[in-house]
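Example protein
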Amino acid sequence: MHKRSLTPLTVLFASLFLTTSAICADIPVGTILAENQEVTRHLKDEPASLDPAKSVGLTEAQVMRDLFEGLVNQDNHGKAIPGVALNWSTLDNRVWLFKLRSDARWSNGEPVTAQDFVYSWQRLVSPNTTSPFAWFAALAGINNAQDIIDGKLPVEQLGVEAMDAHTLKIILNKPVPYFPSLTANFSLFPVHRGTVERFGANWIKEGNLVGNGAFILSDRVVNEKIVLVPNINYWDHKNTVITKVTFVPINQESHATNRYLAGDLDITESFPKQRYQKLLKDIPNEVFTPDQLGTYYYAFNTQHAPTNDVRVRKALSMAIDRQLIASKVLGTGEKPAYYFTPDVTDGFKPEKGLYNSHSQKELDQQAKVLLQDAGFGTNKPLELTLLYNSSENHQKIAIAIASMWKKKLGVKVKLVNQEWKTYIDSRNTGNFDVIRASWIGDFNEPSTFLSLLTSQHSGNIPKFNSQQYDDVIASASIETNGQLRNQYYNKAEAIIAKEAPIAPIYQYTNARLIKPWLKGYPIENPEDVAYSHSFYIIKH
């Protein structure tokens, strides 16, 4: 996913190469297409927003990748390829020039310009927007982003400039050799200024929304469906095969699977782990479980008792039998997570750590001692709440871990499940002791995970505050030597193990069901980035 910097001699060649690549339906010669090219996709939850600056994660991203297009897209393996930008170049990995395609259009027919990106990125970091993803601009290294987010500088000082209608200049505060790949993130999608200013918060409603992606919003019924149809003004519209995309939000995996088996869905986002073996037996060619760039974890509230005590956090983390969770509770190819950073992350070579250098029995014994040192025991059992958003898999894992904590440490756990939006509110306000969380990488590099626990990061769910940790991540962010950068990342992982703001539990697989006639889903993309523009349905 990393892209080497381009010298003046190679810019031209890169330009010629990059302009030939695009996300579109790659249909083999001789393929017979079905007459009906309508696809129905499962979403795990109702999206919180379809505004790139207001969205909170994967649920929204799946829809927004169809409605909007960033500077770059990803190919089937996660590599950056042209989106609105035809090509890009740099001499020092700090100043980047993106040349935009002249045929990029908004769904209302207006041209997409470099100024649209300037406006959208300034809007993202503006304190007035209160974007839950504003941090991404700072993480990407865009100059002055953090100071603007903190209200110290005006948005006009963000390191992004329209040199002309089709040339975008980005100035970073550090060398970031993989910067182009970051621009595939939904938070950096452009939005149409006139539409936002005309309709305010209602600009994302059907009939109002103007996007620049391959599809436009046709209909939306909350908690029922989101319907998209092709955008005739999209620059690559001629290669759009799908005529309608219907996203269906279903947060119960069993319901989604039942609807899939009944023919109501063409693809699911997941399926119940306990049905894996039967599904594999009944429909083996429709079950997929490749590795995914993601970690499932529990976050501890470091600001309130009892989990503000590091001994309590470490005891709880140590007592989790990760191997048992991965192999027995889940059992669909997941690996235990002994680090926050998954094994498939590019540029991460882990050193032996706390959790994979001791047996589970040894960890359990240490956990008991730690909890006793913290003042909890038979006469004074630890009591806490464990919050998760509604899902059968989350519930199964919560029950299993609560049982481990009770059996090994005598902990009394109250399980609390909430619907997605309520859960997000509880998470943001710190209304929890322990909370289920997960992170799917925004790009394939360790900092997409490890930066989450820096003190100023809005994605820092446990509100972990460690100057030592911040310094290590800051040092990693300016280190261009891959081997030295990996040393910093291992230091960061060691601090996480020692301070236990989170308990990594397992590494994700991209488990889903896909109908045999639906083609073009990039199942090997480790970030699970998919565009309906690449889909097509064969005759069946």
